[in-house]
Design goal:
By secondary structure, the chain is α/β, with parallel strands linked by helices. It has 2 domains: about 150 residues, Aspartate Aminotransferase, domain 1 (Alpha-Beta Complex); about 240 residues, Aspartate Aminotransferase, domain 2 (3-Layer(aba) Sandwich), CATH 3.40.640.10. The protein is built from 13 helices and 15 strands. Strands 2-9-8-7-6-3-4-5 form an 8-stranded mixed sheet. A 3-stranded antiparallel sheet has the order 11-15-14. Helix 1 runs parallel beside helix 12. It is globular.
């Protein structure tokens, strides 16, 4: 069997050679310290008990197919949630429920792109966006985010990348892997670019509830009511249930401009019959009532304090700097290229894995153009965070020593 040519430009290095090497080492009996996983479950961050109980209660009634767009109660809860956030234009029929946001990213792009159409995607990005654009026949074009400006998008660079083939812009806010949360003026500039160049906005907001301090999250659709906008979110992060695969996309903008597209997306949703039904019953329970994520992200909360600890320890390593994460569950440290002149950051994380039995993700896997960053997950325990940073420091010390001038 031959590999389809559709896959030639599709990459997802987060589950590529480095992960395969880690699995091979585990098969040999090595214990790997995993600082690469954005999955909450392995680290003891479990779904709220009330959600699990509610899903069990509905199991017998969730054995058949649902409406291809999702069960009515789930879509109603999503619509009401956005309306409480000021997005009064989002109704039940504007919402599609999927098997996580990942499935919906692929579906929405397949329904939208012609071969050769360009989509602007941030660098660094969550690499599924780049892969899904390429798989749908489009071309991913990366605009730069500015590390010196809190990892906010360089809006001049964004506009400079727009061509006659550009059809849309992806916004990942809060951002994975940098943890950046974009202020209102940045989100408004995206909306203005969409108006000016007749573009669609794809706003990935899966981490919208995972924010630290007094940082505010601005929904893209809230400042772009007259623009075609797709808002993605779900239960995997804020409610610690990534394996349940419950996500959604809400379509806003002029109905006459989105009508044909909605029909195409409904066709694709029907072809996969429906999203898994038991998890859909969790959506209403999650979006209503007490929001348990709040106790994790405030001072004294596990995510808040582990973010602070990881940041403090990482920047104490000579030649390592890091912008504090305003949201999400990651840090994106920078390695001084003069002190650590790695030609390949993938080789760096492979060598780190083999020598120190620790797994992190290399920065170019997130389509960052230079081999000088890596992603560090803050989900593991305090003990594991301290040990992980100690091993990274030990590994990097070899390069610092080699770079020292001879006495």
């Amino acid at each position: 069997m031959q590999l389809s040519s559709k896959l030639l430009n599709v990459k997802y290095e987060l589950r590529g050679p480095v992960l395969h090497a880690a699995r091979a080492m585990e098969a040999e009996g090595h214990r790997i310290l995993k600082m690469n996983l954005g999955d909450t479950a392995p680290f003891g961050l479990e779904a709220p008990e009330s959600v699990v109980v509610d899903m069990i209660h509905h199991l017998r009634g969730a054995q058949g197919y649902s409406d291809s767009k999702g069960i009515f109660s789930a879509r109603t809860a999503i619509s009401q949630y956005y309306q409480t956030r000021g997005l009064m234009q989002i109704g039940v029929e504007d919402i599609f429920v999927g098997n996580g946001v990942s499935e919906l990213i692929s579906m929405t792009l397949q329904a939208f792109l012609e071969n050769g159409d360009e989509i602007l995607i941030p660098a660094p990005d969550y690499p599924l966006w780049t892969a899904a654009v390429n798989l749908a026949g489009g071309k991913a074009v990366h605009y730069l985010c500015d590390e010196d400006e809190y990892w906010w998008p360089d809006m001049a660079d964004v506009e400079s990348k727009i061509t006659g083939r550009t059809k849309g812009i992806v916004i990942i806010n809060p951002n994975n892997p940098t943890g950046a949360v974009y202020p209102r003026h940045i989100v408004e500039q995206f909306a203005e670019l969409a108006r000016k160049h007749d573009l669609v906005l794809f706003s990935d907001e899966i981490y919208e509830k995972v924010r630290y301090g007094d940082v505010e999250h601005i929904h893209t659709a809230a400042v772009a009511e007259d623009v075609c906008c797709l808002t993605f979110s779900g239960l995997s992060k804020a409610y610690r249930m990534p394996g349940y695969r419950a996500g959604w996309v809400a379509i806003t903008g002029p109905l006459v401009a989105t009508e044909a597209y909605r029909e195409g997306l409904e066709l694709l949703a029907s072809l996969r019959l429906c999203a898994n039904v038991p998890a859909q019953h969790a959506i209403q329970t999650c979006l209503g009532g007490y929001q348990s994520i709040e106790e994790l992200i405030r001072p004294g909360g596990r995510l808040h304090d582990q973010r602070d600890l990881a940041l403090e320890l990482l920047i104490a390593i000579p030649g390592v700097t890091c912008v504090p994460a305003a949201g999400a569950m990651y840090l994106f440290p920078r390695l001084d290229p003069e002190m650590y002149p790695f030609e390949s950051d993938e080789q760096f994380v492979l060598d780190l894995l083999k020598e120190q039995k620790i797994l992190v993700s290399h920065g170019t896997a997130f389509n960052w153009p230079r081999p000088d960053h890596f992603r560090f997950v803050i989900l593991p325990s305090v003990v594991d965070i301290k040990e992980a940073v100690r091993r990274i420091d030990t590994f990097l010390a070899q390069y610092r020593k080699a770079a020292e001038p001879l006495q």
